[in-house]
UniProtKB/TrEMBL annotation:
Keywords: Aminoacyl-tRNA synthetase, ATP-binding, Cytoplasm, Ligase, Nucleotide-binding, Protein biosynthesis
Catalytic activity: tRNA(Pro) + L-proline + ATP = L-prolyl-tRNA(Pro) + AMP + diphosphate
Keyword Aminoacyl-tRNA synthetase among UniProt keywords: yes
Gene that produces this protein: proS
InterPro entries documented for this protein: aa-tRNA-synt_IIb (IPR002314), aa-tRNA-synth_II (IPR006195), aa-tRNA-synth_II/BPL/LPL (IPR045864), Anticodon-bd (IPR004154), Anticodon-bd_dom_sf (IPR036621), Pro-tRNA-ligase_IIa (IPR002316), Pro-tRNA-synth_IIa_bac-type (IPR004500), Pro-tRNA-Synthase_IIa_type1 (IPR023717)
Residue ranges of domain Aminoacyl-transfer RNA synthetases class-II family profile in the record: 33-465
Major localisation: cytoplasm
Name of the protein described by the UniProt record: Proline--tRNA ligase
Purpose of the protein: Catalyzes the attachment of proline to tRNA(Pro) in a two-step reaction: proline is first activated by ATP to form Pro-AMP and then transferred to the acceptor end of tRNA(Pro). As ProRS can inadvertently accommodate and process non-cognate amino acids such as alanine and cysteine, to avoid such errors it has two additional distinct editing activities against alanine. One activity is designated as 'pretransfer' editing and involves the tRNA(Pro)-independent hydrolysis of activated Ala-AMP.
Length: 567
């Protein structure tokens, strides 16, 4: 490809609204352009990288026994109503009406579409197991699109679905997909971890997220410092063995704590550590009010709370709702003398505290010397807090450390969640109708592109891994007006193209400094510069990442590049 014949609009300045490196560099290097908030056009270079990632995905999906198909982005509301997700998915689901006032959604995901298709087309166990996938644009109405391709309202995704007649068959497919995902992200050159995850609005259980390690990641990974254990912080269980204090129990007393709102405020005011106080929060668990108690130095994990109650929706109650139910606002809540009809649950650590403080359910007052069982009752104790750095690793090996990660893939064992709701059944070998068992497997293709840039860049621009780079070689003629340079550059260009090597030929009438700066910004792995020794047949060869340079004769150039590319 000649650079004069394509669109690569590079920028010298960092765009003001680009906060992270991948967003900055993909804009500056001319890979993407924003059309609206969270909506991007992929320019020629961006599209080439997307295609490279998609090719890797297709190869590994095919190897895992999945067949590619393509489903509509426009989805009728009736299918979503069958699963109940029309009302529970949330405001991220983009909804619209056609001229006949029929409701549709722009596909945020395709479980309903694929399940309706398979229930109509597959009737016998002889057609199972079946694995299908697509690569398609998805739509989600993000409240706050940011970080470029990492959190957009329109994005490219690979989603795959498997259908089975047994959980053993699902387990086999899950492991194949898990391995395929590991292969995909390894081939993309990424430093990643597969972590235990929550299925969220997708339903089902037994899921893993594939996280690319990066400081700009919005997810926190809890991992062992000595084993391969890793989990999303929301899902990591706490296995700390708490011990009961041997101190003598004191008499509970109500004290004034004016204007003390936070746990730290109260701890400082009462002159004790955070661990010697109880934190109490009011949650709405589906349609039920639940008071949740943790130690003051711990944080409530709402995912664990949701799983404890097997709830669809868990959210903090408003201060107005809290005052109506308890008689006090935030900062003064506690488990003592709670109104009937409000269930009180607590994290396991609360069972072992002694002589602690807590809100008195009256604004500006707290109790001190509070003790469980004697002064308040808990309906059930459970692991309800977030794991912390330094906690024992759940697998029994080492202690927990934290890292930030960008989610690029997610695999789910959906089980019968969708098939039951939508009536997807098959006839077994006895002619009996059974509900199908499902798996679901997603990869953010455009997100993966951005994640690669987060891990592969330097102060001058992107440093693409060879397998996903838009081109293998960037060929630059320093001065195209000089006949000997133009002639040699043209010959090298034709030689490389004929050998199947992808080359971007910068034949523009630009200064050498501009060409070199653009080349570093775009980040193609190898650069060939035709300059002052063109009349002797010599070129300069440079490795973009290492900066290593050498002079090569035209006659040895092709074999050297083939060796590097393993072509």
């Amino acid at each position: 490809m000649k650079q004069s014949e394509t669109l690569i609009p590079t920028l010298r300045e960092v765009p003001a609204d680009a906060d992270i490196k991948s967003h900055q560099l993909l804009l500056r290097a001319g890979f993407i352009r924003q059309t609206a908030s969270g909506v991007y056009s992929f320019l020629p270079l961006g599209k080439r990288v997307l295609r490279k990632v998609e090719e890797i995905v297709r190869e590994e999906m095919d190897n895992a026994g999945a067949s590619e198909m393509f489903m509509p982005a426009l989805q009728p509301s009736e299918l979503w109503m069958e699963t109940g997700r029309w009302n529970t998915f949330g405001p991220e689901l983009m909804r619209l009406r056609d001229r006949h006032d029929r409701e549709f959604a722009l596909g945020a995901t395709h479980e309903e579409i694929i399940t309706s298709l398979i229930r109509d087309e597959v009737k016998s166990y002889k057609k199972l197991p079946l694995k299908l996938y697509q690569i398609q644009t998805k739509f989600r109405d993000e409240k706050r699109p940011r970080f470029g391709l990492l959190r957009g309202r329109e994005f490219i995704m690979k989603d795959a679905y498997s259908f089975h007649d047994s959980f053993e068959s699902l387990d086999t497919a899950y492991q194949k997909m898990y391995q395929a995902y590991s292969n995909i992200f390894s081939r993309c050159g990424l430093n990643f971890r597969a972590v235990i995850a929550d299925s969220g609005a997708m339903g089902g259980k037994d899921t893993h997220e594939f996280m690319v390690l990066s400081e700009v990641g919005e997810d926190t990974i809890a991992y062992s410092d000595t084993s391969d254990y890793a989990a999303n912080i929301e899902m990591a269980p706490v296995v700390t063995n708490y011990t009961k204090s041997s101190e003598e129990l004191k008499e509970m007393e109500k004290v004034a704590t004016p204007n003390q709102k936070t746990m730290q405020d109260v701890a400082d005011f009462l002159n004790h550590s955070l661990a010697k106080g109880l934190k109490t929060l009011m949650f709405k668990v589906d349609d039920k009010l639940v008071l949740v108690v943790t130690r003051g130095d711990h944080e409530v994990n709402d995912i664990k709370l949701k799983n404890l109650f097997e709830a669809s929706i868990v959210e903090l109650a408003t201060e107005e709702e809290t005052k109506t139910a308890i008689g006090a606002g935030f900062g003064s809540l506690g488990p003592v003398n709670v109104s009937e009809g409000i269930e009180v649950v607590a994290d396991s650590a609360v069972q072992y505290v002694s002589n602690v403080s807590c809100g008195a359910n009256a604004d500006g007052y707290h109790y001190v010397n509070v003790n469980p069982d004697r002064d308040f009752q808990i309906s059930q104790y459970a692991d309800l807090r977030f794991i912390e750095e330094g906690d024992p690793s759940p697998d029994g090996n080492g202690t927990i450390l934290f890292a930030k990660g960008i989610e690029v893939g997610h695999v789910f064992k959906l089980g019968k969640f969708y098939a039951e709701k939508m009536g997807a059944k098959y006839l077994d070998d006895q002619g009996k109708a059974n509900t199908m068992i499902m798996g679901c497997y997603g990869i953010g293709v455009s997100r993966t592109l951005a994640a690669i840039v987060e891990q592969y860049h330097d102060e001058n621009g992107i440093t693409w891994p060879t397998k996903v780079a838009p081109f293998h070689v960037h060929l630059i003629a320093i001065n195209s007006k000089k006949e000997e340079q133009k002639q040699l550059a043209d010959e090298v260009y034709q030689t490389l193209k004929s050998a199947g090597i992808e080359v971007l030929y910068d034949d523009r009438k630009e200064r050498a400094g501009v060409k070199f700066a653009d080349s570093d910004l775009v980040g193609i792995p190898y650069r060939i510069t035709v300059g002052k020794r063109a009349d002797e047949g010599y070129v300069e060869f440079k490795h973009r990442t290492t900066g290593e340079q050498s002079e090569l004769h035209q006659s040895e150039l092709l074999e050297s590049i083939k060796k590097l590319l393993e072509v």
